[in-house]
């Protein structure tokens, strides 16, 4: 989740980006640390596209089309999704995607090869909001239809597009931490090894779809307490309906949409409508990686998800792999304002209600997992918190480096490998080193 007022923090985030880059550059510049850098492929979720979907400060903005609107009974107020035209991919690239759809259709229905034709109607940004102002999730969606017989409309979220910087920050920091703890990430990416991932908080589903598309060996479990949010992700944001457990959806999408569009990616995902605390208690899985992004319509991160003595934290510690298990949490930043400036602090609290609890959340996760660090998210008032087992990641010769610089160096040394193994369209390194801080 990102606040509608997050743009007010842009200058502070830019300062953090500049200052952290200078101090980390010495570590990052070593070829032994990061290897030869690669040029990423075109990133359709690059922040430069954000004017297309950001909208106005307190609402969807001029030209937006509301495609979903429903009241939630789970504290999220009115959940609605707005659609905005997307400039990429350009129309000249649509025929290649149409051919891909026809080839997929021919494999599923050999008897109809040559008869069925697919046409793309366009690409849109879809933005989910709570209570008319808080941007909860952003995804890029392709809309197409099948021309033969009874015309069928298909809606497909683009899994390779991560539009919001905090999601890229979570992915970058979390995935580079795993190989630092001796986890074989390329084996999971190729499908030669299994990887269990838990996502607490669903939104539009961009994060779990991205992970399921990048790791052939993944089993991605999602926990979302609000069925209205799940319905919005399916009906308006192109999330695969068959991944959902226990939801009676009245979706107008074709019954074969998931098999046609996803090619097995949806089979790696299980979405559970449940309270995270209850789910963790009864879940029998042991996870390699856990992502937590769970805010309600008032922008509150529930206390039970960070209460150091609560049942959730105790059970989560047991369900994460004892050697390399890693937990990644999206937090809303409270830094950059002087504590003595009461007026500024009061104003900041009106923007970020969780601001004063950030340090407590970080300490709680550190206490349960051993090591914790944070990275500031560029352009937004978000912080990525990573908690992991400390034995593997802090082992080795420090060569005069501080503990902070040693851990940062280890993370940066794995960033290029992660990018190559997953074919990421964005670099991990800037997101890891931006405002990097060890939780002490």
Low-confidence stretches: 4-8, 10-36, 335-342
Overall geometry comes to globular
Number of domain units: 2
How would you characterize the largest beta sheet?
A: 9 strands, mixed
In helices, the fraction of residues equals 25-40%
Oligomeric description of these chains: single chain
**CATH domain fold name of the largest domain:** Rossmann fold
Written description of the protein model:
The protein is an alpha/beta fold. It is built from 15 helices and 14 strands. It has 2 domains: 6-44 and 164-438, Rossmann fold (3-Layer(aba) Sandwich), CATH 3.40.50.150; 65-157, no CATH class. The chain has helices at residues 10-28, 31-34, 94-108, 165-180, 185-190, 206-214, 227-237, 257-262, 276-282, 311-319, 342-351, 358-369, 390-393, 403-422, 429-433; strands at residues 65-71, 78-85, 118-130, 134-146, 152-157, 195-200, 218-224, 244-245, 269-273, 289-292, 326-332, 371-376, 382-388, 437-438. Strands 8-9-7-6-10-11-13-12-14 form a 9-stranded mixed β-sheet, with helices on both faces. A 5-stranded antiparallel β-sheet has the order 1-2-3-4-5. The chain is globular and about 65 Å long.
Layout of strands and helices, then pairs:
Blueprint: H1 10-28, H2 31-34, E1 65-71, E2 78-85, H3 94-108, E3 118-130, E4 134-146, E5 152-157, H4 165-180, H5 185-190, E6 195-200, H6 206-214, E7 218-224, H7 227-237, E8 244-245, H8 257-262, E9 269-273, H9 276-282, E10 289-292, H10 311-319, E11 326-332, H11 342-351, H12 358-369, E12 371-376, E13 382-388, H13 390-393, H14 403-422, H15 429-433, E14 437-438
Parallel strand pairs: 6-7, 6-10, 7-9, 8-9, 10-11
Antiparallel strand pairs: 1-2, 2-3, 3-4, 4-5, 11-13, 12-13, 12-14
Helix pairs in contact: 4-14, 9-10
């Amino acid at each position: 989740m990102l606040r509608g007022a997050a743009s007010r923090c842009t200058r502070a985030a830019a300062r953090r980006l500049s200052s952290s880059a200078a101090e980390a550059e010495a570590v990052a510049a070593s070829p032994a640390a990061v290897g030869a850098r690669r040029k990423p492929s075109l990133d359709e979720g690059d922040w430069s596209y954000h004017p297309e979907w950001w909208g106005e400060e307190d609402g969807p903005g001029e030209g937006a089309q509301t495609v979903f609107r429903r009241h939630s009974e789970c504290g999220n107020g009115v959940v609605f999704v707005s659609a905005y035209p997307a400039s990429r991919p350009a129309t000249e690239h649509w025929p290649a995607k149409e051919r891909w759809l026809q080839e997929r259709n021919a494999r599923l229905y050999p008897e109809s090869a040559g008869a069925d034709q697919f046409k793309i109607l366009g690409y849109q940004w879809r933005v989910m909001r709570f209570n008319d102002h808080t941007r909860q999730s952003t995804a890029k969606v392709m809309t197409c239809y099948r021309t033969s017989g009874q015309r069928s409309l298909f809606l497909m979220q683009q899994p390779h597009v991560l539009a919001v910087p905090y999601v890229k920050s979570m992915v970058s920091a979390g995935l580079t931490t795993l190989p630092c703890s001796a986890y074989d990430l390329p084996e999971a990416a190729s499908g030669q090894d299994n990887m269990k991932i838990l996502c607490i908080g669903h939104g539009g589903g961009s994060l779990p779809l991205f992970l399921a598309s990048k790791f052939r060996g993944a089993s991605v479990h999602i926990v979302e307490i609000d069925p209205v949010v799940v319905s919005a992700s399916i009906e308006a944001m192109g999330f695969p309906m068959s991944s959902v457990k226990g939801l009676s959806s009245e979706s107008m999408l074709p019954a074969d949409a998931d098999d046609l569009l996803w090619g097995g990616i949806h089979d790696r995902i299980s979405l559970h409508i449940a309270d995270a605390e209850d789910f963790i208690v009864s879940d029998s899985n042991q996870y390699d990686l856990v992502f937590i992004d769970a805010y309600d319509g008032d922008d509150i991160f529930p206390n039970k998800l960070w209460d150091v003595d609560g049942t959730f934290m105790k059970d989560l510690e047991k369900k994460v792999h004892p050697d390399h298990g890693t937990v990644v949490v999206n937090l809303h930043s409270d830094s950059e304002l002087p504590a003595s400036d009461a007026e500024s602090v009061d104003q900041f609290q009106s923007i970020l209600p969780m601001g004063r609890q950030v340090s407590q959340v970080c300490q709680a996760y550190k206490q349960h997992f051993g090591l914790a660090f944070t990275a500031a998210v560029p352009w937004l008032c978000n912080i990525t918190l990573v908690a992991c087992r400390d034995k593997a990641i802090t082992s080795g010769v420090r060569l005069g480096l501080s503990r902070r610089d040693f851990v940062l160096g280890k993370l940066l040394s794995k960033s290029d490998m992660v990018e190559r193994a997953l074919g990421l369209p964005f670099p991990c390194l800037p997101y890891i080193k931006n405002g990097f801080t060890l939780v002490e």
